[in-house]
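Propose amino acids for all 459 sites.
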């Protein structure tokens, strides 16, 4: 059996790993590569294997860097099932369609510019039609129920990362390979802790935060309550750039708990992202993925994602109207890295006033507005205009959905180490991956590999 790393190695975007046993090919993930336009277009349209020769695809969870390129997989000839949990399937439908809409509207804008310059038009990376076609191949699969795919026996376990996220446990040719997808954290809100798998001969592990430690989630409520009270008292507003999947729901859920316990004042909360609202609807529909605390709340006839004073904003007019009002409020809006979307106009109207606060709760990639705000740069550019950043900035990494360095090492440490011969670290910048090599060896793992893109290994 061989594994070829086809994307998402030494970087956190565009995950794709191809397993081959005889002539039977199983693709783990089909993520969209996000980066500079030319590179992204090329990478997302050219697979380093023949799409039609792949028999099955398994997607660990509904983040665009794991599922976002299935439209091209099908467009280039793949015709097998794309397997994922029901929760991932429901979320992926929203994300992939949203992504296709963004690709189409981006290209419309670009083509207008190209036409003015007399240059030929371009095609979107994929269209809404491509997205819809690919979604026909998606099949739901429950946790803990083995499924035979030719020579592979596959079981999904809860990865505790976002709703429906899975660890992929594969038995083939007498060996067991465990793929973490993105590994979650213990004691996070709404969803369960990651399932501990003990036995594997080979582990393909994410290493996003291999060199970082997060604050613990249990301290989040007190910190968030303190911030809300402080900004409310001075009459300011809080803008929270948040990812539409999981992060927006976690913030709403945490604010809901604080409100129920009278730990924050009666301040209006707006979720201003149509995608986040639709994703929240999926969260409401799938309580089978909730942890005990969330289930207890539901059984007590309490809503998880609704409370007095919480509004889901739909129309653009409603969204814009929020900036006319001077009342203290909390606005949760996408995109999480402040690169596009409605959060931009909220930031534009909020960053110059020291009464306001920008609450950063998500991973911020380099060269994004979110990163510049996190670094508290004195001047930030929004819609091409410079704005002095006078609002207070708070950064809360406690909400991170990824295991940190300790979490990753604890997970591996609880495995059957004499059996575990090899660990591949993927989904990680190089320095974060390198920081895990020695500690993994100290645990007794014989071989730790940080594969490069295109690298192939015999297992
Ligand atoms: Zn993820």
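Proposal:
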């Amino acid at each position: 059996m061989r594994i070829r790393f086809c994307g998402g190695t030494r970087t956190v975007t565009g995950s794709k790993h191809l397993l081959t046993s005889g002539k039977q090919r199983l693709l783990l993930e089909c993520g969209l590569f996000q980066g500079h336009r030319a590179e992204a277009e090329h990478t997302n349209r050219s697979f380093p294997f023949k799409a039609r020769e792949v028999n099955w695809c398994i997607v660990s969870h509904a983040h665009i860097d794991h599922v976002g390129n299935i439209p091209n997989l099908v467009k280039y000839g793949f015709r097998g099932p794309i397997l994922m949990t029901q929760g991932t399937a429901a979320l992926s439908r929203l994300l992939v369609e949203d992504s296709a809409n963004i690709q189409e509207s981006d290209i419309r804008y670009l083509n207008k510019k190209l036409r003015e310059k007399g240059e030929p038009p371009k095609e979107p990376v994929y269209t809404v039609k491509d997205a819809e076609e690919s979604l026909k191949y998606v099949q739901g699969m429950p946790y803990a129920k083995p499924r035979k795919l030719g020579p592979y026996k596959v079981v999904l376990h809860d990865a505790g990362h976002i709703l429906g996220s899975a660890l992929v446990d594969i038995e083939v040719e007498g060996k067991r390979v465990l793929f973490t997808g993105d590994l979650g954290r213990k004691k996070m809100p709404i969803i369960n802790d990651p399932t501990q798998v003990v036995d594997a001969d080979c582990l393909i592990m994410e290493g996003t935060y291999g060199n970082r430690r997060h604050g613990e989630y249990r301290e989040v409520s007190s910190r968030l309550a303190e911030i809300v009270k402080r900004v409310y008292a001075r009459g300011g507003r809080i803008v929270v750039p948040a990812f539409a999947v999981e992060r927006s729901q976690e913030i709403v859920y945490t604010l809901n708990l604080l409100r129920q316990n009278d730990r924050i004042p009666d301040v209006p909360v707006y979720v201003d992202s149509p995608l986040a609202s639709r994703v929240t609807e999926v969260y409401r529909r799938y309580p089978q993925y909730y942890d005990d605390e969330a289930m207890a709340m539901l059984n007590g006839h309490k809503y998880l994602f609704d409370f007095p004073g919480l509004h889901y904003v739909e129309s653009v007019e409603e969204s814009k109207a929020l900036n006319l009002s001077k009342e203290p409020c909390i606005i949760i809006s996408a995109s999480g890295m402040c690169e596009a979307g409605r959060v931009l106009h909220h930031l534009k109207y909020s960053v110059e006033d020291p009464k306001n606060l920008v609450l950063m709760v998500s991973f911020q990639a380099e060269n994004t507005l979110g990163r510049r705000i996190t670094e508290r740069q004195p001047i930030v550019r929004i819609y091409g205009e410079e704005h002095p950043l006078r609002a207070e900035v708070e950064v809360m990494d406690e909400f991170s959905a990824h295991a940190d360095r300790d979490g990753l090492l604890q997970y591996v440490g609880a495995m059957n180490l004499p059996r575990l011969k090899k660990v591949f670290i993927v989904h990680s910048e190089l320095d974060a991956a390198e920081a895990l090599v020695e500690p993994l060896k100290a645990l007794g793992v014989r071989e730790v590999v940080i594969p490069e893109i295109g690298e192939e290994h015999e297992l």
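Residues 61, 63, 161, 182 surround zinc ion (CB under 6 Å). The radius of gyration is 22 Å.
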